[in-house]
Amino acid sequence: MGRFRGVSNPLHDELLSLWEGLLFAAKWLTLRTCLESDAQGMITSVLNRGVDLSPLGCLIEDCKELFRAASLVCVVHAFREANCVADRIAHYALSSLAHDVEIEWWDSPPIWLSDTFIQDFV
Description:
- 47% of the residues lie in helices and 8% in strands.
- With 122 residues, the chain is mainly α.
- It has one domain (10-121).
- It is globular, with a radius of gyration of 15 Å.
- This is RNase H type-1 domain-containing protein.
- Residues 5-93 form the RNase H type-1 domain.
- One of its GO terms (molecular function) is nucleic acid binding.
């Protein structure tokens, strides 16, 4: 979890998050990984085979390249109602007093997120 600086719009934020996720997934080339997002427009942009010439085109093309390099990674759409964990993390990052802090966890979620995991699985 972290914050991005200089984000121009929600699509930009979603693309940066995907880019970070793809970089993270690239560390384990033999691990099958599925990245979920409720940003259908972002997923469509990244899966589109044509060259994107929009203002965010360079970032979209970087994501496409990372996606092609990580053959065991898939990107799928998840409805917002089934993506409560991502929503809670985003709200926590926005309300956090520590603006430049990144948080990682590997074995169990932080206590403020535990109940949300249960909601997503139900």
